């Protein structure tokens, strides 16, 4: 369903090969995702749908409870929306993180979770099933091993036993 209240649309930029959200004829917001990661754009230019608007608003409201600045909230909400609706599925990368629990855990879209590797990282759950969750990094960065750092906006899929739900998100230092 198309949202007729705004004329935003998604497209793949021909020069950068990135998924871009076009807010107006002269304001284009590049996401963190390249053409190879995008699976479900049905044409060169796809409308920002009502579902996109609903997800964006839900993520923006949730991120408004954190200590992230307005620009980071907007950026993460747009990237989370794009990841939920347009990215190809990704393989799990659980080996980067410590097991936090032996209990079976389930998560919902919008949960804020923590992971532990060399440093602590806070993520937003985008999608979940009984075994795994797709998450996007809210922290500025997370050092996962001596050679690798994940940056804010990184999308991963991990096993649920690597995640711990956080309830007081306004107290987290992102």
TrEMBL record:
InterPro entries: ZapC_C, ZapC_N. Residues 7-87 form the Cell-division protein ZapC N-terminal domain. GO terms for biological process: cell division. Keywords: Cell cycle, Cell division. Residues 89-165 form the Cell-division protein ZapC C-terminal domain. It holds the Pfam family ZapC_N. This is Cell division protein ZapC.
């Amino acid at each position: 369903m198309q949202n007729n209240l705004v004329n935003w649309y998604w497209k793949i930029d021909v020069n950068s090969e990135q998924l871009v959200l076009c807010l107006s004829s002269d304001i284009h917001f590049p996401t963190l995702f390249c053409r190879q990661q995008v699976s479900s754009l049905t044409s060169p230019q796809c409308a920002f749908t009502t579902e996109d608007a609903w997800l964006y608003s839900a993520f923006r409201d949730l991120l408004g409870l954190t200590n992230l600045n307005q620009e980071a909230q907007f950026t993460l909400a747009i990237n989370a929306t794009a990841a939920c609706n347009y990215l190809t599925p990704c393989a799990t990368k659980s080996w980067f993180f410590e097991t936090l629990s032996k209990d079976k855990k389930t998560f919902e879209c919008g949960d804020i979770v923590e992971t532990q590797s060399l440093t602590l990282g806070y993520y937003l759950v985008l999608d979940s099933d009984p075994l795994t969750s797709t998450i996007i990094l809210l922290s500025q960065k997370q050092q996962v091993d001596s050679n690798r750092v994940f940056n804010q906006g990184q999308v991963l899929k991990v096993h649920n036993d690597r995640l711990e739900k956080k309830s007081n998100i306004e107290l987290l230092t992102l």
